[in-house]
Amino acid sequence: MSDEVFKEGGPYHIKRVGPDKISMQMSVPADADGLVGRNCPNDGCCPGYFKVKLGTGITEGQLKAYCPYCRHEDEPGGFLTAAQVEYAKQIVLHEAIKGINEGIENALDLGPSGRKTYGGGMFSLEMSYKPSSLPPVVPPMEEVLRRDITCPHCGLQHAVFGLATWCPDCGRDIFLNHLAKEFEAIRKMLSDVDRRREALGARVAARDIENALEDVVSIFEAAMRAMTIRKMKENGSSDDQIQEKLRKIGNKFQNVNLAREVCEDEFKVQLLQGLDPKQIDSLRLTFEKRHPITHNLGIVDRKYLEKVRLGELEGRDVSVTPQDIIMVMDVGTKILENLHSYLFSNNSQ
Ligand SMILES: [Zn+2]
Ligand SMILES: [Zn+2]
């Protein structure tokens, strides 16, 4: 009976391809935005999860796909998520149970009524078969990823966690595009501050600006960390060595001067070279306003006053304007682009 469990054809294009082998085709369901989940098969890759929009990017003759985080190469079908594998197994099980039910009905020759009566007169035997119910097939539940991007080289629309580096289709370095996309979101938030001030009041507008500064510093730090990790990996450092280094760096990348020192020690690169000293100064001051904002809810503390010596009175709100933050993003972008080109310009991708 094993032969007849899976009937050829049907919605999954079942085909017998060997004595104990069948092939089935099923498409992976997409989310509401038309993106399908992908998972890096490299066990050590973190976060490893991303999404791509089928039909964009490389649509013909694609032999290889890449992980946007670690650039692991595999055939395009090699990036299935756990939920997709589970979905495929459920469909196979569903089809198998359907085939077995039909097989038993046919073997017993039960006919469409599902019943058969043997004998007659005084002695008769009725046989019926109640097929087991089919298990439900649940479509894969995928994560919601909000960082969507289109590769400027091949046009692949995809979504990732955090700051990724590689395009999953063409494998090129699109780190700076991710970075620009992050800053673009903050620019959009800032452009709405006046409207929110009118609608929701000055305090909400001030919090929006403070949050934007907080986000800019976090992005700067994340980008510096991502480049440090990548460079150390390229130089052959082990994961343990990288973790140890990051532990030592701590939160130095949140401070422009300390970030400069780390880059000098680590990569022999002058992080702020070629930049206008005035711009660097206002970048440093704006970055440092984050400390009292984060830790004292916008109230200037003594340590901050000593550090910045701006003459702002203790207890007054730290003033940061949308223009300050736009300046920080512009200068910050320049710094990060310089470092990226210095560290990775020889890279073949
Ligand atoms: Zn990976
Ligand atoms: Zn691409």
Walk me through what this model shows:
With 349 residues, the protein is an alpha+beta fold. The chain has a domain at 176-344. It has nine helices and ten strands. It has helices spanning 82-107, 175-191, 193-200, 202-234, 239-249, 256-267, 277-296, 302-308, 322-344, and strands at residues 15-18, 21-23, 35-39, 49-53, 65-66, 73-74, 115-120, 123-128, 147-150, 157-160. The strands form four sheets. A four-stranded antiparallel sheet has the order 3-4-10-9, covered by helices on one side. Strands 1-2 form a two-stranded antiparallel sheet. The radius of gyration is 30 Å and the shape is elongated. The relative contact order is 0.09. The mean pLDDT is 85. One zinc ion binds at residues 40, 42, 45, 48, 67, 69-70, 72. Residues 57, 151, 153-154, 156, 167, 169-170, 172 line the site of one zinc ion (ZN).
Describe the structure in brief.
This protein has 349 residues and is an alpha+beta fold.
